Amino acid sequence: MQIFATVATFALAACGVAASPTPSWGNWGNSGNPNCVSRSYIEGLIAQEIVFLQHKNVTAAVAAGNAIFDANIAEYGDSINSLRGAPLGTQVEFNATSYIAETTSTPPIPQIDTLSLTVDCNQYVWQWRFYGIGPGPNPYIQGITLGKINAAGKIYYQYVEFNSLAWAENSGYKVTPPTSGPYAAPSA
Hints:
This protein has 6 helices and 6 strands. It is α+β, with helices and mostly antiparallel strands. It has a domain at 36-126 and 143-163: Nuclear Transport Factor 2, Chain: A, CATH 3.10.450. Strands 2-1-6-5-4-3 form a 6-stranded mixed beta sheet. The longest helix has 18 residues, at 2-19. It starts with a helix and ends in an 18-residue tail after the last helix. Residues 35-173 form the NTF2-like domain.
């Protein structure tokens, strides 16, 4: 009798699972919350951010920046602060106007690949690889951007981190590891 009860329990559970609706994995991370954006929406923002960062056509890049960034975007990132010589923790960008002007006046990034994208409601983590940063020895620079989306569907916050030593080396900085101590370059 005990075995019959156990089998019957599993059979009922299986029927319940089979009768449950199939989850939509396309919007995984928004938990069915109508206030969350979809993964495809974030993918569209990333596509526009790539147009902005590559700025092959400055007019298109400015339009992309204005379309995706909140007027008061706040950007942080100690990788950028390190390259600028700014104190760690300093806010990097304060508004879309200056961010767009600064970015489109710097050398473009010839190729950008998305390595991974994780979306959770109104924020995302974008792992990327930039090719063609300066004439230096590193074939690419790899990093992440944590972005947050406001109720208007625009990016209002970004936290960016990347291999700043590789970026510096490609941009003409001299990167010299110590010759002794725990961080010394390995001996040949």
